[in-house]
Amino acid sequence: MSDVNNKPIDVAVGILMQPNGDVLLGQRPAGKPYDGYWEFPGGKVDPGETILEALKREFVEELGLTINSAEEWCGVEHVYPHAHVRLHFFISRDWHGEPQSLEGQAFAWQGTVGVEPLLPATIPLIEWLDQLRFGR
Predict the structure, then answer these.
(1) Is the dihedral of CA 125, 128, 132, 134 positive or negative?
(2) Where is the signal peptide (predicted)?
(3) What is the pLDDT of residues 30-52, one digit of tens each?
(4) pLDDT over threshold 80, residue 7
(5) Residue 42 region by backbone torsions, left for phi larger than 0, else alpha for psi between -120 and 50, else beta
(6) How far apart are CA 47 and CA 53, in angstroms?
């Protein structure tokens, strides 16, 4: 159990967005906190890495994808029972390759997000993302 007063852990999170607005969500694999919950892919920023470098590395490791470019979108801090995280969200419309399940995780392209349960820090973002994607 981590002390929530500790400095938050920086996490790079990527939202792959297709031309029609569909986004990629992944399911957390067994053995991780919140296993089975759906989230946008990403991971911890390693010492000496920029957030964008971490994002690109995580997408290669988890999904076998190369992100060509991504723009910073928003940041959210969330305190989970197991960790205090600072999530840095990027949107990418420019990547190479098809997603592969390299960590045994399920993933799904979603228009209107229908997968459940969603990771708690992800829930408010869906509404913001819908405004960005669909202007509502």
Answers:
(1) positive
(2) none
(3) 888 899 999 999 999 999 999 99
(4) yes
(5) left
(6) 11
The reply to whether 2 falls in a domain is no
Sign of the torsion angle spanned by Cα atoms 101, 92, 38, 114: negative
Structural domain boundaries enclosing 33: 9-134
Report which of 82, 74, 92, 91 is spatially closest to residue 119, judged by C-alpha positions: 82
Classified as helix, coil or strand, 49 is coil
Average pLDDT, the chain: 91
* Beta carbons of 113 and 124 less than 8 angstroms apart: no
Let me know if residue 96 belongs to a domain: yes
What's the whole-number mean pLDDT along residues 112-125?
89
Separation in Å, CA 96 to CA 17, 24, 34, 40, 63: 13, 14, 29, 18, 11
CA-based nearest residue to 65, from 27, 28, 38, 95: 95
Question: Which helix (H) or strand (E) segment is 77 a member of?
Answer: strand 66-79
Taking a C-beta distance cutoff of 8 angstroms, is the pair 28, 39 a contact? yes
